[in-house]
Amino acid sequence: MQSPLSPDDIALQIEQAAETGDLGLLRRLAAAGSTDALDQLVESATEQEDFDELRRLAAAGNRDAADILAELRSETDD
Length: 78
Fold this sequence. Notes:
The chain has about 80 residues and is mainly alpha-helical. The protein has five helices and no strands. It has helices at about 5-20, 25-30, 35-45, 50-60, 65-75.
């Protein structure tokens, strides 16, 4: 059985995923309960313009993702 990751290991994985744009890894870390990974997932999805991911996050109740989508919609309405 694999031992749990330390907070430093998780932070390193989040940093590496952010640098490589690995939304899958961020999604897995967030699903495991890392709020930092969830925050980075929203940020990375925004940077990559992955609107499907932002919509998924917003539908799951992520307020930041919902706010970003609302802001993008208002920009396209102008």
